[in-house]
Amino acid sequence: MRERTTKVPEAEPEGTRAPCENFPSAHRAREGGTLLHSAQSSTVLRGPAQLGLDPGDPAKLGGRGSPRRREPEGTRAPCENFPSAHSAREGGTQRALPVGGATRAPVIDVHCHLTDAAFDADREAVIARAWACGLTDLITIGAGSGMEGNTAAVALAATQPHIFATVGLHPHDADRFQPEMISAFAAFFAQPRVVGVGEIGLDYHYDVADRAKQRLAFEAQLALAVEHQLPYVIHHREAIDDLFAILRGVPVPMRGMIHCFTGDRTFARRALDLGLYLSIPGVVTFRRTEALHDALQYIPHDRLLMETDAPYLAPVPHRGCRNEPSYIIQTAQRTAEILGLPLEILCQAARKNAETLFAL
Ligand SMILES: [Zn+2]
After folding, report:
1. How far apart are CA 61 and CA 163, in angstroms?
2. How far apart are the CA of 199 and the centre of ligand 1, in A?
3. Residue 87: in which H helix or E strand, if any?
């Protein structure tokens, strides 16, 4: 298996950022799985924290660990339990929580990996903190650790009404793609709270899988999503031309999102023109991400989503440490600042968009 760099550059140009830089494992061994999505649409705000409810029985959450990883040594952030150790990295202008006085972001984390092994020791506490920080729903990504990962994500989603799952085969696992997987994925659609296909796409940066196989797996899963009228969660890295060439073959208006959008205005426009949503990660809190900040000004508010990609890509001041859904507050806060919007308005828009896209 390929060695990956663990150094996160201060800023990276358009679409070049690995979504899982410090925790490459999550995007390694994957395969498939999936489930059903509810047809009803709702804009009603809910969530255990909002309703003052207990987030759930912790005993139900950590039943199974994440699938086996095969990442190289030394890829984990050293400060997982001491996130404050990294606050100084960002030049001293950032402070620990709360940022700007905000302590809650009533939003939906549309992309996190809750079944990752990084959460095995305290998964229930991580989820409880998400509700405490105001998150209303979480979408955990099944792709990334083979069929086992999909099964785990679906099982976790079945434990709580505000946790949803996607299923799919990550581009890094495309060498393992077999046409029979499609029916296996489709079988997951009958399970509770399976709301999408993902993450799927192309990654030409690491080239973990053969590019032709990546394209094949991507196209097959897009077709599956279209057939089942499910949204798709798109991963991409250094593959923009092929990505859009394939996406142009999908019926419009498209029902999908670009996960971990760190691109510029040109890239945003290409995605928006196809009808895609753009999901903003913690990278927006990093220095030297002016192109992304500029793109944000261009993206209509009804196409914005918010995500953590936890346990990867933690925002400042947690950068380099394990990420978790509650850290979305920093990402939302920074995005709101850039857009000149009150935090609550941004969260409300992003939450509504997530509910619309995933029919939550
Ligand atoms: Zn991810």
Report:
1. 11
2. 7
3. none
Q: How many angstroms is it from 112 CA to the middle of ligand 1?
A: 6
Q: How far is the CA of 173 from the centre of ligand 1 (A)?
A: 13
pTM of the prediction?
0.76
CB-based contact 305:110 (threshold 8 Å): yes
For 167, the 3-state DSSP assignment is strand
Q: What is the pLDDT of residue 101?
A: 56
Identify the helix (H) or strand (E) that includes residue 233: strand 232-237
What is the domain partition of the chain in residue ranges?
Answer: 26-37+88-358
CA of 140 to the centre of ligand 1 (A): 9
pLDDT at 102: 66
Q: What pLDDT is attached to residue 238?
A: 95
Q: For the chain, which residues score pLDDT lower than 70?
A: 1-102
pLDDT tens digits for range 315-331? 999 999 999 999 999 99
Neighbours of ion ligand 1 (CB under 5 A): 19, 309
CATH 3.30.1360.40 fits 26-37+88-358, yes or no: no
